[in-house]
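May I ask you to comment on the folded chain given beneath this request?
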Amino acid sequence: MSDPTFKQRARYWFDNTMSKGTKALIGWLTVITLALTAIGAAFLLIAGQGNGFGGTLWTSFIHILDAGTITGDGENGPYMVIMFITTIGGLVILSSLVGVLTTGLDAKLEDLRKGRSLVVEKDHTVILGWSDQVFIVISELVEANESEKRAVIAILADRDKVEMEDEVRAKLPDLKSTHVVCRTGDPADPDDIAIVNPGQAKSVILLTSAEDDPDAQLVRSLLAVTQGGQGDLKCHVVGAVAESRNLPAARLAGGRGAHVVDANDLMARLMVQTCRQSGLSVVYTDLLDFGGDEIYMVEEPNLFGRPLSQALHSYRTSSLIGVLTKEGRCIVNPPSNAALQPGDKLILIASDDSAIRLDGSRPVIDESAIVARAEAKNRPERTLILGWNAKTRMVLEQLDQYVAPGSVTDVVSDHPDAAEAIRKIGPTMRVQGLNFKQDDTTDRLLLESLNPGSYDHIIALCSDDVAPQLADSRTLVTLLHLRDMSQRSNTRFKVVSEMADDRNRTLAQVTQADDFIVSDKLISLLLTQTAENPHLSHVFGNLFSPEGSEIYLKPADHYVRPGVPVNFYTVAESARRRGETAIGYRVAAEAQRAPSYGVHLNPDKSVQMLLQSGDKIIVLAED
């Protein structure tokens, strides 16, 4: 091939220059303007119409920049012709300049719309991914950051920046002191993640994506954040897997700096605990959100060397639930005779960290009101599960760890995967018997044939083989049938239901079910709390586990005499003598009143109250 010609080289050089964008175009227009000015001035001088070299250049330049200047020219023929041609050239140059500037400005605005600029913030919260969970997480972070003058949340998702900002403004109009910054990019690309500056963030929250395999996206994002060249991350990284089998891989990808939870497993545990004691999801929601009581960890040197029984009654407006040892071990419901060691931190429930204050007054305990009633022995239970989804297998496995021998669980669903799953699960059940019926749970005749009044517990699950709104609609139909059957037979059904969308919880209140669980909301709250304080993952891990101490709602008349005015110091002391930790109570008469549903968590211990038969004490206990 022959060497390129001069023309080809010049064209290649010109193309490379023009590819540099708006700046190069403006540069070329400047060169053309100067050249045209010089040419116009030269022709004037040749025609003998010039006014000195400098004056002639100025005259030519003015005619290029302002086309109206030609109206003031005289009637000299050669002068007018030269200036007319120069003015026409100036109009072309100015028109081109306007076009170039407009195009460059549009390109710059489009670039800004893409959200690709670096987030220059420190101690901000990074959210990777986009789903309905993002609004719950943001609203909770807004509450948590209310005391800060300026808090920042940076969101990176594979969506349009402006659309994300519009959705946040529409659903969360009052962000208080929190500023939300959105950026467009792949949450699993290290280069894109660098845009939100995770190296200087205080926490990173990974949301579950809407992909067919969300856990694969989560693992990629964990690797991109922790191993993708983001520097030495000092922030907390939290996320949740959708399937238990992917948990080991996710934890390996995240390393020691990440806290990954098993969403379905946690919700299955909560579902089982709640079906056996209604009101529990309200307690957990109160603990997990930032709007009411929260869990704090404080070091109290004044109590070092003293038994925890003294710490139990040392806080009037806070409730002791455990100890975080200096070795990092979390102990929930510790023995009351154990001594608090230097370096240990108390785990407390309080409305705010400013409410955690040692009370120097002596607690008033009414010994005459304390009773010691033994717990009833576990008896075989009958449980009815209406519906099927990915969590049902874990619900059955968890239920098998709680119920007494001889218990029976019946599952009714028309889900296409249910029959085969039940066939595999059945032989693994150690304690309970398992029966399955393939049928439509919205069928009134079917529900009546099941005789729901004969069951100790009923769990209504939303199906995952249809859209969330349709699944909730079918669950609502089932709950309405159960309520009507309960009223007609004058029989109380203990029903716990799962909702796919938290907005449908309000609609479901008319069904008068004992409790409602919204999985996505609770997981979002758990991730947000863990992002703010990673030690809380150990606390909630202990509370959700069947081993060790958990939260129970037990009859109030097992602790104090019903109908007798008592303060919560007395209730807490009665629970302490049973090896338990009291953190609140539930009034049965208020069980259907939103938003607390009768739950009073972390009450003022000095305030008198009147507990009746049917009311519950919320305690941490081993069984």
Observations:
- The chain has a mean pLDDT of 84.
- The radius of gyration is 35 Å.
- The longest strand covers residues 151-157.
